[in-house]
Amino acid sequence: MSKINILSQTVYNRIAAGEVVDRPYSAVKELVENSLDAGATEIEIYIEKGGKQLIKVVDNGSGIERDDLKAAFLPHATSKIASVEDLDNIVTLGFRGEALASISSVAKVEIVSVTKGNPAYKISCDGGKIGEILPAALEKGTHITVNNLFFNTPVRAKFLKDDKKEETDVTNFITRYILSKPSVSFKYFVEGKLILQSFGGGLDEAVAQVYGAKVLAQCFKIDAEKNSVRLHGFIGNQNFFKSNKTYQSVFLNGRYIVNNTIATAINQAYASYMMKRQFPFYVLNVDVPSDIVDVNVHPSKADVRFIDNKTIFGAVYSIVSSVLDGTARAADFVLNETRLPEIRSKIDGKEGENKVYTERTPTAQPADLAQLLKKYDKSSTVAEDMKAAGIELKPHFDPLNDMPLSEIIPKQKATTMCVSDDTMPPSLSGNIAAYEVESRLFNKKQQKQQKIEYSSCKYKGNLFNTYLIYEVADTVYMIDQHAAHERLIYDRLREKLAKREVITQALLVPYIFTVNSAEARFLEEKQAVLRTMGFGIAPFGFESFRIDELPVDLQDINLKEFFDDILAEVDGLKEIKLEDVLKDKIAMTACKHAIKGGMQLTDGEVDALFKLLDGNMGLKCPHGRPVCVTLTKKDIEKMFKRIV
Q1: What's the pLDDT at 426?
Q2: Which is nearest to 171 in space by CA: 24, 345, 339?
Q3: Predicted confidence band at 323 (pLDDT cuts at 50, 70, 90)?
Q4: Is 171's pLDDT higher than 70?
Q5: Which are the contacts of 412, defined by CB distance < 8 A and separation ≥ 6?
Q6: Are 224 and 216 in contact (CB under 8 A)?
Q7: Quick check: 325 and 237 in contact, CB under 8 A?
Q8: Which residue in 263, 378, 401, 408 is deepest, having the highest Cβ count within 10 Å?
Q9: Residue 261: in which H helix or E strand, if any?
Q10: C-alpha distance from residue 385 to each of 18, 176, 280, 327, 604 (Å)
């Protein structure tokens, strides 16, 4: 390993604001990067109490020479750069020479290290006080132990998260290193238990270890180069999306970054395939010449600056969109050839022609999607960058606005529900029998103004088997039978949840799903809330959960969609009420079980529904549509020009 240099003022003044070790994950990050820069091929990480009590990093790297052990704790001490010119060609993960100095100033640190052909030595530093160099026993590499982080800075310690949350943040960073350095073997222990392990067998193995082997079958493995920008790794296919951004990783020249230019290019390439609140999956390595990128712009090195953003944007967008859209170049970009038939599913013309495209049929989209994609995102910076790069804007697909209603709403056949006068129809009795509506959308004054006496109403018939017509004095009330019934069911379900009157139904076959570390922490925090809702949820192995019970009223719920929606708010849902969490799902259930527009109701059924409304004409359905609209005699006479 190169000799450690004490940087001169000329050099360290050029370096961006110093790295501040403010959390356990930042300490782990710096120590692991030092191990990687030392050429380690095997790294073990141990943490206890979320890293507050213990952080230990063991590697088989080149080690630190005896004469450099004390210098390792000094500020601006690094073996990775020596002059100003070196800042323009940084190839290591660390380079500022501040990591160990920052960590040792707020913790008790011990280094045990050995270089090839020499005996091992150890040195400790207690809150910035460097001890003596002593002989030690070690065969290879370096062991660094950090105890009692922030023991001498109690104010900073107060701002730390609880142990579980700090542990999750550390785990997230370890997964990034496994993905960014797939040729390195990692072992990660929490409280002495092995949590993550990789064997250095390549990116395929790393992705499988972090996300599970099933993910590989839903991804394209790509390796492409355009305008000196090389893109290689995995991107999700046209139908594989996640509910949040925690499944997105970009590594620039081996360094994990969060960069808006690259992220925007990828999202724009996926734009015509994604529905709302969906995010693409990708683990991508972006390799560029070191002279066109500045990595010294962010204290934590989390972001970088490119000399030409448009070139980077254009290259990334072009490659990803070519693969997703199935252009002729896709065959050159995709490495896992067994996935190519899904790209080259149809060939327009004779065999051998280069008109290759996909059957673009994402979920809930019609076959003639191309005719419906008419809306374009012309947002300022993205549109300008794409235009400058010579890229045609990819249209966004909005199913509610762009898809014909006939594709969204299935045609209903008129159905007559025959029951006796004393019996509610099945669709009504099963959902709203013996339930009196208590409106929650209007205050008492509004309710009083819009409430009518049932006995004073005269039923005059219906329009289109959908709108029930009632006459009261000089006013006509037109009630949407579906919206009215939907609101009644919705209110009943919300009231039951609010009162915790939830009956559960056991599942014959439990539903099991896998999450990442951030999502696992979130669900563990919300287990009690979910159980109160009626969901029997429990951990099932590492970062997996089992659902074995459901609320009876929501037994038709799509569990995947439900938990995707819940996990989309990984950083939210702090103090939200149960009925608010399930609002959308309750609304969907109410809509599904309510009588439909176009259904022909008997007089008894009409009367039963109207009684349950209890005269509340100011209600709205869960989706915001009015239950009732009114017309006065004066309004009608104006229509016919009887009065002006």
Answers
A1: 39
A2: 24
A3: very high
A4: yes
A5: 596, 597, 598, 599
A6: no
A7: no
A8: 263
A9: helix 260-270
A10: 32, 29, 21, 22, 64
Beta strands 475-480 and 375-376: pairing type? unpaired
Read off the pLDDT of residues 448-478 as tens digits, 9 standing for 90 and up. 446 777 677 889 999 998 999 999 888 999 9
Which token pair is 381? 């910076």
Pairing of strands 185-190, 42-48: parallel
412 membership: H or E segment, kind and range: none
**Average pLDDT over the chain, rounded to whole?**
76
Residue 307 has pLDDT above 80, yes or no: yes
Supply the pLDDT for residue 115: 93
Which alpha helices (H) appear in 43-183, and where do they start and end? 99-104, 154-158, 163-180
Rounded Cα–Cα distance for residues 616 and 619 (Å)? 6
pLDDT of 365 higher than 70: no
User: What is the spatial distance between Cα 48 and Cα 184, in angstroms, rounded to a whole number?
Assistant: 23
How many whole angstroms from its chain centre is CA 5? Answer: 43
Could you tell me the two tokens for 451? 């409430």
Q: Give the Cα separation of 582 and 595 in Å (integer).
A: 22
Out of 11-25, 223-237, 290-304, least confident range:
11-25
Can you give the pLDDT at residue 298? 57
Position 344 scores a pLDDT of 42
**Per the structure block, which two tokens stand in for 120?**
């091992």
End-to-end, the C-alpha distance of the chain in Å comes to 95
Tokens of 413: 């056949």
- 413: pLDDT strictly greater than 50: no
Quote the CA–CA distance of 296 and 75 in Å, as a whole number: 17
Band of residue 299 on the pLDDT scale cut at 50, 70, 90: low
| Rounded-to-integer distance, Cα 511 and Cα 530, Å | 15
Under 8 Å CB-to-CB from 440, ≥6 apart: which residues? 491, 494
Q: Cβ neighbours of residue 168 under 8 Å, at least 6 residues apart?
A: 517, 518, 520, 521
Percent of the chain predicted with pLDDT > 70: 71
Closest by CA to 498, choosing from 404, 576, 603, is 576
- The neighbour count for residue 13, using CB atoms within 10 Å, is 10
CA distances from 505 to 176, 510, 530, 591 (A): 40, 12, 14, 21
Residue with tokens 């938990």: 563
Per-residue model confidence (pLDDT) at position 410? 35
Helices (H) and strands (E) in the chain, counts: 24, 31
In sequence order, which residues have a C-beta less than 8 Å from that of residue 18 and are 6 or more positions away?
Answer: 75, 96, 98, 102, 299
Residue 179 has a pLDDT of: 95
* pLDDT, average across residues 242-257: 90
Grade residue 587 by pLDDT with cuts at 50, 70 and 90: confident
- DSSP-derived 3-state class of residue 102: helix
CA 66 to chain centre: 47
Q: What is the rounded distance in angstroms from the CA atom of residue 510 to the CA atom of residue 103?
A: 46
